[in-house]
Design brief:
This protein has 278 residues and is an all-alpha fold. Helices cover 76% and strands 3% of the residues. Helix 2 packs antiparallel against helix 3 and helix 3 runs antiparallel to helix 9.
Length: 278
């Protein structure tokens, strides 16, 4: 395969990854890593490094808009980033030493979990009270309602959410994904933060978490500009396209379609990991 053909395939695949990631809310890494490893035969460690770079690019672009709109809880995000950063560094160190087949199996299982979680019915809950620790750390906040009025909300179970964020960071560093499913569970289910705030704050945190783990991959030589550049461009273009389509599309049907697609990719990764093809 020539360099031009390889680059064009990566560019189109990354566009598709950004498009699907934008519509499903699960990020582009779930498509990029199977594309690079199974289709193009790239070592999974290089694929993870490339996926982390794409996470940084997409998170930086979309997080700025959410912060500007006042939805993201930056104080909460910066506090929880302590856990995700430590977890990300640990996950990256484990990934650099772990066999590729083991990482592929873990990646597949994580995709299955993410697909199931994406189909879960999201209920909006707004707590009016907070735990003493949350009040002491000044974590409660407000987000704008559709008419622009601020809606106050409380925060619960800070320790439980912080612990879950450590796991989310470790999975991000280990697998090169944003691990948004784990972060949203930590904030939405455990800390009882409104879903709109938890998703936007998770997006804000993804880039910082990816930066922490990508340092390890850079030191190991697993981030190659020749691979990363077309992937970053393609993911950004795909995410922009997906955002436009999402406005007119039926979100329930999209979630079901992409959950099935992700399940197929997950089973493929697990199969190839067990067979030792990766």
């Amino acid at each position: 395969m020539s360099v031009l053909t390889f680059t064009l395939i990566m560019l189109f695949g990354a566009w598709l990854a950004g498009f699907i990631g934008s519509l499903s809310g699960l990020g582009g890494g779930i498509i990029i890593i199977p594309l690079l490893t199974i289709v193009l035969g790239v070592d999974i460690h290089y694929a993870i490094g490339t996926a982390l770079v794409s996470v940084i690019a997409t998170s930086s672009g979309s997080a700025a808009a959410y912060v500007r709109e006042g939805i993201t809880n930056m104080r909460l995000g910066m506090f929880l980033e302590i856990a995700t950063t430590l977890g990300a560094v640990g996950g990256a160190l484990i990934s650099s030493a772990a066999p590729a087949s083991v990482i592929a199996i873990i990646f597949g299982l994580t995709l299955i979990f993410s697909a199931i979680n994406s189909l879960r019915k999201k209920s909006e809950h707004v707590l009016q009270t907070s735990s003493p620790l949350a009040e002491k750390l000044d974590l409660p906040g407000t987000y704008p309602a559709p008419d622009g009025t601020p809606v106050p909300y409380g925060v619960k179970n800070v320790i439980g959410g912080f612990s879950m964020m450590g796991l989310a960071g470790m999975m991000s560093g280990l697998l090169g994904i944003g691990s948004g499913a784990f972060k949203v569970i930590a904030m939405d289910n455990i800390m009882r933060i409104p879903f709109k705030v938890s998703t936007t704050t998770s997006n804000f945190m993804m880039g910082v978490t990816a930066v922490a783990s990508s340092v390890i991959y850079i030191q190991k030589g697993y981030i190659q500009p020749a691979i990363c550049m077309p992937v970053v461009i393609g993911v950004l273009l795909g995410a922009l396209t997906g955002a436009r389509v999402l406005i007119k599309a039926n979100p329930k049907k999209l979630r079901l379609f992409f959950a099935c697609l992700i399940m197929v990719l997950a089973l493929n990764m697990i199969y190839n990991g067990i067979k030792g093809n990766i």
